[in-house]
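Assess this one:
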Amino acid sequence: MRKKKNSNKIYDPSTAILVAATFQEYAEIFTTFIGTNKEVAAQRAFQNIGKLIASATQIAFAIELSLKALQMLFNTSVQTTHNLWALYKNLPLKIRNDIEKDYNELNLTKGDITAGLQLSIHIGDIAEDENNKKSPSKDIDIKSVLKRSQDAF
């Protein structure tokens, strides 16, 4: 069911889910290409940096649209932010618990299987960056992932 929030915006969760699934489908072309072996995936991603960035952006947008669709379905206010963590926190507790349960079951990692790749682009002196280098968090719990990806685009 479509919801009209104000005079110029119509929110439709079905359309949001359809578009999110399409973005995810296109991102999966790249993630399938790079594979699950850590070394091979890193090499292929580095050799195809534009596709890596496009894929990461598509995944972030798919997550954003999915979270907003859930906000529509559960009658919470639909936020205009791209901040994935803020969108997630706005969902009802029961929904967040269900998402976290499914997420944790799907994201068990074993051995050399790649769960994700991180990319950081820095502007400035490379030597200065190396001296002040802070490694991004490797935590894969849903809160860490959403906070780390909160401003993917």
User: Anything to note?
Assistant: The two ends are 29 Å apart (CA to CA). The longest helix spans residues 49-73.
